[in-house]
Amino acid sequence: MEIGYLTNRGRRREHNEDNLYVFSPSDTPYRGAGMLFAVADGMGGHAGGEFASRIAVETLGKYYEHYTEATGGSGNGPTVDFEIAVRDLISEANAVIYSQSQSSPILRGMGTTLTLAVLNDQELSLGQIGDSRAYLIRNGKIEQLTNDHSLVAEQLRMGLITEEEAQYHPAKNIITRALGTKEHVESDFYSVQLEIDDRVILCSDGLHGVVDDQEMLRLTLGAQTTAEACIRLVEEANNRGGPDNITLVLFHLKPIKPFWRRLLKI
Fold it and tell me: Domain span at residue 225?
């Protein structure tokens, strides 16, 4: 497993309201629970947006540790149901953000998108709310794994507008679901069985909103490492104006070379 991640303010925003999270329980008693990755894109102004996205990822980390410990994530207890785990993670984060927003007039109305992934062996469990995305790169092709919760995306799925119209639609940034804006939230869940050499990208719309899928594919596959790919992708988004904060997590299930090839460094 090779992991890269990067967040950047972009060129037009004064503050970075995005946050990301990478957690590996490999050195903990619940190491069998799987790795946790997340990207959150805050909304509601600098104070609210940055706070909401930070609460989201911090709550995920704390709650995931407690959840997996309580359910026997080390393999010594009951098997973890990852759909329940992902939905519980999102509900907990939503409850914390909503409670904070109700306690302060300055934070009222704050919210955040959230795309989270739990990787256990080669099973990928995804939770989604808002318009941050998850992509799968496999066999030289890229596929969007999640559906955006946005006004334009819903019109596109209903066939009311074309993909070209969606790309330049004046309401493309209006999302229909967000974490923390309501007391209860409905999230989407996806499960994917990964294969060796697969790459997965989680990203905010500061990346996918300006860099199209094929360009993301080219830049990712053209990099030597996941860290280099993250740098290239952020640079490309900024080269195209950097209109928003840019955040991504990229992980690669790298094939393991035979011992003799590693020994000879080939």
Answer: 2-264
